[in-house]
Design a protein that fits this description.
Length: 537
Amino acid sequence: MVADRILLSEAVFTGNTLEPFAGGVAIAGNRVLAAGSKDEVMALAGPDTLVEDYGARLIAPGFNDSHLHFASAAALNDPDFCVNLMGCTSERECAERVRAFCEAHPHNEWVYGVGWDTAMWEQHETPSRESLDCFAPEQPICLSSFDHHAAWVNGAALAKAGITAETPQPEGGEIVRDASGRPTGLLLGQPASTQVSDLALLVKGLKGSILRLLDVFRGLGITAVGDMFPRDLSNDDIYDTYRQIEDEGDLSCRITFFPSLLEIPEALEMKTSFASDRLRVGGVKQVLDGVVEAQTAFMLEPYEGTDHRGETNLPPAQFKELVRAADAAGLAVRVHCIGDAAARLALDAHEEAQRANGRKELHHCLEHIETIVDEDIERMAALGVGASVQPLHATFGSSTGFYDVCIGADRASRCWRFRTVRDAGVPLGLSTDFPAAPMVEPLQVLYAAVARCMPDGEPAEGFHREYALALGEALQCMTQGSAWVESFDHELGTLEPGKLADLVVIDRNLFALDSLHDIVEASVVLTVVGGETVFER
């Protein structure tokens, strides 16, 4: 077969090994024809073959962000829909941004914002409804925290949601109240926060926002994503929007959906109706616990200075039965488990499912596993359960000091152990959880994975760099590993014959840099999806 296109470079990283080699990639149609030496791929050239020589610039598989929230990210990056609170250093600064947004958008039925983080506030205040009610007594406001596990709302939003002093506390969450029992406007844990945010996010007409985000992704070299809870905007027509974009030829990123574990029949129906190489279903997802910062992650030992260990968002027996049912139906299950007790419960569920159903070739996966203990890492490997982790969570989370406060310095020193997980033989994918993480740039993810530093290079020694990955390992985890956790590695993740021709060219050889921090200075110069150029600089 003759190649339609051949890309040459002194540095080709296929993902099958951990080092690049001099050679090239040959493409025929939408698939890789060959990857090898220059002589091997040039032997496939014909008179009409396009040959491109990128010199010392790195050719690699397309980046795959295997855990994000696509529609939410699209909406939240639309400046006419959402006010961005990232970078604010006080409750007052957040409120001033929201006030300005309200004045510019007086006809918005809801005002929605995202990104506040009390760990970044100078005085670590607790936000309250009063700072919003003073300028918006009637326009409902819902402000999600940076990780979407808490909401700060005003009185009008509480009224819209029907939350009063008499409203019972939701299982796995907390409606914070003052001494008189009156809700303060702070909702902790998703079982509480989503009572308001689900109303605020009843968004229609997201097509334009999605197209804008796709354009951003092309420039970043993101060719595939795993979309957790695709309908988390409570938007029933979101799937039709995706399909329309695909039909019009504008879907430049492959999207693998992971609907809720509570929607097994719907997920099975979707698996049939979305079965292209651009829109597909990879399994289901469940949020089993909360986050360490809010002390809602489910822990084996109590939080510092308390007798509280957090709790699960579903009764354990119900969760285990749902995992067994999904496994029996052939659906891979991805479980958010930040606490070590949540990780143990998830593995118990998978172990019981294997006993009941027999071991299947399903790519079950635990998400985040920030505090998992050694024996359960070993169980993951034994059970064939993969891990999906977020290096930016590790660096930003470590920088706040909140983990030391919440779980003590000893436990905090053993968080985000990517090296330990990989060395145990657990399939490992890297992602961002965007927009729950403040950025989506793959090169920032790579840098965080190998240096364990913030984007500015601090701290110079990294946050527990003993748990860092080597560059080849991190790049493999962002490509082949991410495809594995999406149950898509038979088609994606490596540059080898027969796989879809999704690749990026980076403006330098990342394996020949003087400093790890030079990774964040690099940029994508070419993005190819299915053999076609979708971005070129």
